Amino acid sequence: MKSEKNEVKMELRGETEVVFTRYFSAPRELVFDCHTKPELMKRWLIGPEGMVLETCEQNLKVGGKYLYLYMDTKGNKSGVYGTFKEVVVPEKLANTENYIMDMSTFDPNAPEDPAATFESRTFTTEGDKTLMTHLCRYGSAEVCKMMVESGAAEGMAECYLELDNLLLKIT
């Protein structure tokens, strides 16, 4: 079977960490922008089938907060929120990630879950491509196992095909 350079590769590290890597055929500045500018994020960051990124609010600085809400065709919402821990344009983005499963109980002013997922994305130029290394450190081995078994890599791969299409349009 032929290996595609732009496929999502997943590596487990210990019981709570997963590292995803993926190449993009675009300059890292543009790939970084697509991960940080709401007007670009809304064009490729799809949620579960039938959902669109309806709300994309963020304060892109260390200590800044973000809120991404997905909505389905019936108006049901879910999403993620967190705090940026590191922002080095166009090189690195790190944040916490908390999941919102029930909007009726979501309080944007509530303290973050101490077991929130930690994410870090590093963007590296390799020739005419950008390598994105995406580390996810989950709050427990159980959550990590659930994310891996739920098809996180496949979901990312689907999103990144959307990003590839957007990058082709804007480069």
Quick overview:
This protein is α+β, with helices and mostly antiparallel strands. 26% of the residues lie in helices and 39% in strands. The protein has helices at residues 28-36, 38-44, 141-149, 152-170; strands spanning 9-13, 17-24, 52-58, 65-71, 77-88, 92-100, 117-126, 129-137.
As for the CATH topology, it is Alpha-D-Glucose-1,6-Bisphosphate, Chain A, domain 4
- Tally of distinct domains: 1
Separation of the first and last Cα atoms: 30 Å
What is the name of the CATH superfamily? START domain
* DSSP summary: helix tally: 4
Measured by DSSP, the beta-strand proportion falls in 35-45%
Shape-level CATH architecture: 2-Layer Sandwich
| Run of helices and strands | EEHHEEEEEEHH
Major sheet size, sense and barrel closure: 8 strands, antiparallel
Report low-confidence residues grouped into runs of 5 or more: none
Q: Give the strand line-up of the largest sheet.
A: 1-2-8-7-6-5-4-3
What is the gyration radius calculated from CA atoms? 16 Å
CATH class: Alpha Beta
Question: Can you give the helix content as a percent range?
Answer: 25-40%
The overall strand count is 8
By secondary-structure content and strand pairing, the structural class works out as: alpha+beta
Which word captures the global form? globular
User: Quick check: average pLDDT?
Assistant: 92
